[in-house]
């Protein structure tokens, strides 16, 4: 009965979003989403999300300096930099390589760079998390990834690349929304909204259990917590936060 209800309500949501499905069928939605809608949406959403998660991010990134190499250098690689909402939490003098599969975030990214002059920006790479071939193996001290693993094509392939580019003893920092508890109403609504949400928000998946991928990855140490962050009017509330050491 639950599956029937989910299918029925999915159809209702799809009906409400029919213009977007039509634009997608005509091949118009995806380029419009990547170039105009999603960069605009992400800049607004990131500002709200950062206010909601400021304390959690401050706590998460507090020990970043512990991974500074003996030379005094701290090289960071951020996967899915977007509008650069994490820059304010990085330690002074660190060197950041920014990557994103979508090159259309430049306006928001430039604003964040100008606001955060304490960080040294090395370069921006147009790259997917699953393919960071432009970054040499073992070359970075920490990799940062927030609200990105929900939309990569393969979480496992992305984590393999993370492990490749990290130096031994380096760390991977994450903050990701995940599937809610399967017995909860939240998970019920996540299943309903999932197909339409994924279409509208550039591949974002609501029901991924990313903690399982992290537990199965070849990290020597994993510090992971499940937390709840309420975002009104969205099916996103369950998160995982922490860092893993290569």
From TrEMBL:
A GO MF label: S-adenosylmethionine-dependent methyltransferase activity
Listed transmembrane segments: 7-29
Domain Methyltransferase type: 77-174
Keywords, in A-Z order: Membrane, Transmembrane, Transmembrane helix
InterPro entries: Methyltransf_11 (IPR013216), SAM-dependent_MTases_sf (IPR029063), Thiol_S-MT (IPR052356)
CDD domains for the chain: AdoMet_MTases
Keyword Transmembrane part of the UniProt annotation: yes
Protein name: MET7A protein
